[in-house]
Amino acid sequence: MKIILDNISKSYGSNIVIKNFTFSFEKKSYAILGKNGAGKSTLLKIIGNILLPSSGNIDYNIDNKDLIKQLFFCAPYQDIISELTLEEFLIFHKKFRNLEVSIDELLNEFRLLNFKNDKIENLSSGTIQKIKLSIAFFSDSNFILLDEPTTNLDYDSKKIYSKMMNKFSNSKGIIIATNDKNDIVINDTHIIDIT
Fold first, then answer.
1. How many CA atoms lie within 13 A of 109 on its CB side?
2. pTM of the entire predicted model
């Protein structure tokens, strides 16, 4: 699968956020860098088919597969169903997206097993971010799109993030948007600076 952006622009009124961006994403590791307000999150949302560009074309080169199931978007500002326990949430998630491992394996990989029966609304922001990252990495998809992936993570959780990046970087396309160069853990990550 390839994601091909051709001459993409995005404006909010008279404010041009992205101008004439052209790039082809393959199953590799990419990092979109830039200052606050440079358009990193906007570009990632466009790549993820969450936000439409003002102009330009996007071609998702896939073979007769549901586009939405080929991409997984993860951001700290996304809401998840906080009234459910963690296990209930993951069971609900599995109704829409296949997980590549069992729920217990996923929880174990991210050191979330102790929170299995806790309501998500009672968990810390860092734990909730680990939940989002866990489903991003372990859901069946060709591309993982991560916006500011280590937001709210402590040192140990950042180590888990690094482990997952290394584990999945050869089998999935991973595109991160960040202004923290420490989020870039794969040595051959292609850097896209939109400052």
1. 21
2. 0.94
Domain 2-193 adopts which CATH fold? Answer: Rossmann fold (3.40.50)
Are the beta carbons of 165 and 175 closer than 8 angstroms? no
Token code pair at residue 147? 């916006």
Residue 133's contacts (CB-CB under 8 Å, 6 or more residues apart) are 74, 110, 146, 149, 161, 164
Q: Is 177 helix (H, G, I), strand (E, B) or coil?
A: strand
Residue type, 17: V
Count Cβ neighbours within 10 Å for each residue of 8-42 and write b for 16 or more, e otherwise: bebeeeeeebbeebeeebeeebbbbbbeeebbbbb
Q: Distance between CA atoms of 53 and 161, rounded to whole angstroms?
A: 30
Sheet holding 2-12, edge to edge: 15-25, 2-12, 55-61
Could you tell me the residue ranges of all domains in the chain?
2-193
Write out the chain's pLDDT in tens, 195 residues.
899 999 999 999 999 999 999 999 999 999 999 999 899 999 999 999 999 999 999 999 876 567 778 899 999 999 999 999 999 999 999 999 999 999 999 999 999 999 999 999 999 999 999 999 999 999 999 999 999 999 999 999 999 999 999 999 999 999 999 999 999 999 999 999 998
End-to-end CA distance of the chain: 28
